[in-house]
Specification:
Number of strands: 13
Structural class: alpha/beta
Helix content: 25-40%
Largest sheet: 9 strands, mixed
CATH class of the largest domain: Alpha Beta
Radius of gyration: 24 Å
Distance between the termini: 19 Å
Order of helices and strands: HHEEHEHEEEEEEEEEHEHH
CATH architecture of the largest domain: 3-Layer(aba) Sandwich
CATH topology of the largest domain: Rossmann fold
Low-confidence stretches: 23-32, 269-275
Length: 300
C-alpha cells in the first residue's frame, strides 16, 4: 500500500512538472512576441514572423556580422529587408565583395536608406520619393497597387502579379515588375491625381548586373509582412516569396541592418538568450540545475 502511495505521489509530481514546463513554454512564446513593424517576432499583420518561419533552416543563415559573407561564391542570395541605417564602410565593402564573387543581393525598401545603400555599393538603381498610386489597385486604397511581370528573373519565375502596399517607384536597372499605365506618383499624399502628377508605367522591381553578381531592388518591403502572405491573398505574393526561399541556393538574411530583427522588452532578453552562445549555454545550465534541485527535493 505504501509503495502504491509513493508511486502515486511521484506520478503527481511528474504531472505537475509537465504542466509547469508546458506553461513555461507558452509564457516564453507569448513574451517573445512584439508589435514592431517588420519584426520577425511580431505575429500580427505587420510583422514578418510568417516569412521567417517558412525559411529552410538547412539553407538559411542569419548574418549578424559582415565577415559571414566571405565564404559564399556564385549561388548565395543575401536579403536586406527594410534597412534602418547606413551601413559602415566595412559592411559596404563586404556587400561589394559578395557581389564580386557572383552572388545576388536583394534589397527591399521604400523610403528608408535603400537608395543611399545602393549608391554606395555602386548601383545605378534609385528608389524615388512619393507613394505610387493606381487606378489598377486591389482594394479601395489607391496605394494597394497591382504590379505585373515585365522582364525575366529566375527569382520570380512563378510571379505574374503582385499586390503591393504603399510602394515607391524605382528608376534605373532592368524592369522586372511594373505597374499598369493607370498609375502615378502621389507627390502631395492626397491619394488623387492632380497636376503636376502624371499617369504612366512605373517600375517596382528592378535588377542590375554588377561585376559578376546581381542586385535586385523591391520598392515595397511590406510584401514580406504576414498579411501579404496569407494563402487567400489575391495575386502571386506567396508564390513570389516561395520562389525566393524554396530552392537549393543558400539564403542569407541580413540582421546587421534590418528592422526584421527589432525586439523590445522581454522579447529582447529572449532574443539575446537565443542568439548569444555563451548566454544560451549559461541559461540552459541554470535551467537544468534548477530542475535537478527541485526534483531532488521532491524525491526526498
Amino acid at each position: 500500500m505504501r509503495v502504491c502511495g509513493v508511486r502515486n505521489i511521484r506520478y503527481a509530481f511528474a504531472a505537475a512538472g509537465l504542466v509547469l514546463l508546458i506553461s513555461a513554454l507558452i509564457l516564453t512564446a507569448h513574451l517573445s512576441t512584439n508589435n514592431l513593424e517588420f519584426s520577425q517576432y511580431n505575429t500580427n499583420w505587420n510583422g514578418t514572423s510568417q516569412f521567417f518561419s517558412g525559411l529552410d533552416r538547412h539553407h538559411t543563415v542569419m548574418v549578424t556580422k559582415s565577415t559571414q559573407l566571405e565564404p559564399y561564391r556564385g549561388e548565395a542570395l543575401l536579403l536586406i529587408l527594410a534597412p534602418y541605417r547606413m551601413p559602415d564602410d566595412e559592411e559596404i565593402t563586404a556587400y561589394q565583395k559578395f557581389l564580386d564573387k557572383g552572388n545576388t543581393l536583394l534589397l527591399a525598401d521604400d523610403f528608408g536608406t535603400g537608395s543611399a545603400i545602393l549608391k554606395q555599393i555602386g548601383s545605378r538603381i534609385t528608389i524615388t520619393r512619393g507613394n505610387l498610386s493606381s487606378v489598377d489597385r486591389q482594394y479601395a486604397d489607391p496605394y494597394t497597387v497591382v504590379v505585373y511581370r515585365r522582364g525575366n528573373s529566375t527569382l520570380f519565375s512563378h510571379c505574374n502579379t503582385l499586390i503591393t502596399n504603399r510602394p515607391a517607384a524605382v528608376e534605373g536597372g532592368d524592369a522586372v515588375m511594373t505597374t499598369s499605365v493607370l498609375s502615378w506618383v502621389d507627390l502631395d499624399g492626397d491619394r488623387r491625381l492632380r497636376a503636376p502628377e502624371a499617369m504612366g508605367q512605373y517600375t517596382v522591381i528592378a535588377q542590375e548586373d554588377i561585376s559578376r553578381g546581381r542586385i535586385i531592388v523591391i520598392s515595397d518591403p511590406s510584401i514580406f509582412i504576414n498579411t501579404m502572405l496569407e494563402p487567400d491573398q489575391p495575386g502571386d505574393n506567396l508564390a513570389c516569396i516561395q520562389d525566393l526561399i524554396r530552392s537549393n541556393r543558400t539564403v542569407l538574411v541580413d540582421q546587421m541592418n534590418s528592422r526584421t530583427r527589432d525586439t523590445e522588452g522581454m522579447s529582447e532578453i529572449l532574443h539575446l538568450i537565443r542568439t548569444t552562445i555563451p548566454v544560451n549555454v549559461l541559461f540552459l545550465t541554470l535551467l537544468v540545475l534548477a530542475v535537478a534541485v527541485v526534483w531532488r527535493r521532491k524525491m526526498v
